[in-house]
Predict the structure.
Amino acid sequence: MPVGPRPATVPTFPWRTKSDWWVKNNRYFMYMVREATAIFAAAWVVVFLIQIPMMAGGLGDPRLYVGWLAFIRSPLWVIFSLTAFCFVMYHAVTFLGLMGTVMATRIGHLRVGGPLIVGPMYLVWIGITLLLILLVLLIPQLGG
Amino acid sequence: MAASNGVGAAHSVDLSAVSSVADMIKMTVTRYRPGDDPVPVTESFFIPYHDDWVVLDALQYIKDYVDGSLSFRWSCHMGVCGSCGMIVNGTPKLTCAAFLRDYYPHEVVVQPLTNFPVVRDLVVDIEDFIHKLEEVKPYIIRDDLAAAPVGLGNEYRQLPEQVEDYKQFSMCINCMLCYSACPVYGMEPTFLGPAAIALGHRYNMDSRDQGRNVRMPLLGSSEGVWECTFVGECSVVCPKNVDPAAAIQRTKLATTNDMMKSILMPWSKR
């Protein structure tokens, strides 16, 4: 159901958005950074998915597993992982920050928004992170 | 006193001599005179500085005492009518609320609202915005309007919290600063835009309204809320704190809920 654009009824000089619009304002720039974080998150996940069979012993080929160990210790992968981590953290923080705006609602007479929504989300995030850290530390001990 | 640069310059003076005068401020404005200027050009004016003047006062001074051909829109001079929106030093602002003291002694650059075609000087064409505003039906729709009795005691009453649900979004003065700040609208003119969606959301949230199902097909379309990528600048520049970005994101949530309900509860009306 498109509604526009409606052409002008008088002679005008048309508007054209330039390709560098996002470098002329810090908030536009940070928006583009926020959008770019998705590329790093996706790239890291794709590489991680490729690594899963290598982690599992190379599907019967130990050379793959040894190759994977060498790969994750390489400075290139460490730098990429740290960079991706920083971008994903920025993505997560901005995402949670926006939730207070998006999910604002009313429960009876009480208006729920902002900190009341974002706060519990941070608590859940921290809780899940701590749980995962605990599992990572416990699994080798359980495996003996 | 005036100086011009660019194509279509009409006159010029020695700026270095003028700029040394105390209590003067340099105003650089965009000029576009159809028929004379093939493209918009800039023109600089040195005018007296007063710390209680707003940018609109400075433009009016230029028009009254320097160049009567300078064209710009204004009406109320008190931040209500939404007519005097322009780009001031790169930011969309109501020029009646932008004080010169916030820029002095630096130059003030005034341009027409970005993302709109320029009619003349600082005047932009708003036809597209008005059309989109009409399309979202920003008024109360009632199924029973024709049969509704009129008179004392038959008003559509609301609780204070019901008013609070939409009050913020009803503050919009249609100044179009949000459209000017929205890069999505600049690149995709089919986008319904922040103010129109905010006003659609305002009436959807009004307990007296029954037109939600009439508005949602347009609001929830690809040219509606789903074109928005949440840059958020619309809410930053809004002079009335309407927060159109919030209205858009909440409408996204509402359209998603509608879709899920239609799948899980096809017998439901919403």
